[in-house]
Amino acid sequence: MQDKLIIFDTTLRDGEQSPGASMNREEKIRIAKALERLRVDVIEAGFPAASGGDFDAVKAVSQAVGESAVCGLARALDTDIDRAGEALAVARRSRIHTFIATSPIHMEHKLRMTPDQVVERAVAAVQRARRYTDDVEFSPEDAGRSEEDFLCRIIEAVIAAGATTINIPDTVGYSLPPAFGAMIGRLRERIPNADKAVFSVHCHNDLGLAVANSLAAVMSGARQVECTINGLGERAGNAALEEVVMAVKTRQDAFPCDTGINTQEIVPCSKLVSSITGFPVQPNKAIVGANAFAHESGIHQDGVLKSRETYEIMRAEDVGWSANRMVLGKHSGRNAFRTRMRELGIEFEAEEALNEAFARFKDLADKKHEIFEEDLQALISEQIYESEAERVKLIALHVCSDTGETPRAQVVLKVDGEEKTSESEGSGVVDATLKAIESLLATGASLLLYSVNSITTGTDAQGEVTVRLERGGRIVNGLGADTDIVIASAKAYLNAVDKLLSSAGRKHPQVADV
Ligand code: KIV
Ligand code: ZN
């Protein structure tokens, strides 16, 4: 029988560590449900000890997910492990992932602990995690730069203490595929109780080698890969789930294992993550980039028309590329709307929320007639953002743009309950609008990114705007969607400002105080 390659998705945890990609509870639930439709085996939902918000989000994902196991990250500290155990208590299948750094550089400079102390702490952490669940994963952080003899010692000890998965992270993306693969093979051979645990890898992409390193490890016996949708993650990101899965599926001649992933859900999931985080997917990105299956050259087009195998090694429809599917129209009723939302994993807890979403849908359908899956996702994002906006709300926007005249904008905002109006000129109406908003709010934030993407095709499509702001070292993303891109821009800017003004700080798992 062929081995199963376990897919452990960490979009909601390591992915969230990308600056500006932090997600709230509702966003995490929506992505978790999409991951479940994708049939990932394990969803790492967050780091519960980071903040009250992170704890709640992991708990909410544990409640929402039925099939995939839900995992919480914990440093090798009693308090972290207890927080993770509590957050995961409601999950149907739960996993605690505990870690401690093992490289000389991390032990000496970050932890200020001796190797003996690190082993002792790791064993105690695994034992404590086993009080909450039988499914315990241990990671020696920075394994890629750790001494192999020490790795063997600590891994043997944690397996004896009850760890069921051993994850080898290339934390700083330093490893090269042949050496990384060989190391996994040697660890499995040298550690006497290695057969009592599944070996896993978690590779970062600093040298663009995360997927290559992960696949080399699979060839040497790793049977779990940790990855993220669109390769999101700390710094240059993690191994991209879609690339790992499709490499293994397409090259079954080379791999003695396969995943249980429902590949047709890859593209919808990629679009959802991109839309929620505001991280666009580059057009030439493998599998999920807009050009991944587009043949521009005449020779290629000719070949594909005669026989698709000439230039295509995978079928676009197998990874979920299809012409935008029209899902609802102007005449669709409330029940059809609710059913379609349910299929997308969106449940309305209260009748008022459904009514509000339906009213927004009718509004949109009046403007653009054909409503696609992506439109519904954007509509829900917006409803959530607006319901959570604590400080600022857009009340009205008026813009004026005439050939040969300076563009102008007038905005009316509600700021902490009080209505305020401002006007500004700009190089275009978007610039004038954002300047008018800034003159009212005086956030002093720097604009790091402004981007507009068309959610679907056609000139009546909604534009989705991402605004990234930075203030005092904190980076936040704001999103807004509308058939009018100036309104979408104002909404995105206000969404970012609201996050900047209201959200509380959280701990970072790998920089914190063990
Ligand atoms: O990159 C890393 O080492 C991690 C660990 C917490 C597994 O993210
Ligand atoms: Zn990582």
What does this structure look like?
- The chain has 514 residues and is α/β, with parallel strands linked by helices.
- The protein has four domains: 3-277, Aldolase class I (TIM Barrel, Alpha-Beta Barrel), CATH 3.20.20; 294-323, no CATH class; 334-371; 389-502, Alpha-isopropylmalate synthase LeuA, regulatory domain (Double Stranded RNA Binding Domain), CATH 3.30.160.
- The protein is built from 16 helices and 18 strands.
- It has helices spanning 25-37, 52-64, 78-88, 104-111, 115-130, 148-161, 177-190, 210-219, 241-250, 266-277, 298-306, 334-343, 351-368, 373-388, 429-441, 485-502, and strands spanning 3-4, 6-9, 42-46, 69-75, 94-101, 136-141, 165-170, 198-203, 224-227, 257-258, 326-329, 370-372, 392-400, 408-415, 418-425, 446-454, 463-471, 474-482.
- An eight-stranded parallel beta barrel has the order 2-3-4-5-6-7-8-9, surrounded by eight helices. A three-stranded antiparallel beta sheet has the order 13-14-15. Strands 16-17-18 form a three-stranded antiparallel beta sheet.
- Strand 7, helix 7 and strand 8 form a beta-alpha-beta unit.
- Helix 1 packs parallel to helix 2.
- The longest helix is centred in the C-terminal third of the chain and has 18 residues, at 351-368.
- The chain starts with a strand and ends in a 12-residue tail after the last helix.
- The mean pLDDT is 92.
- The chain binds 3-methyl-2-oxobutanoic acid (KIV) and zinc ion.
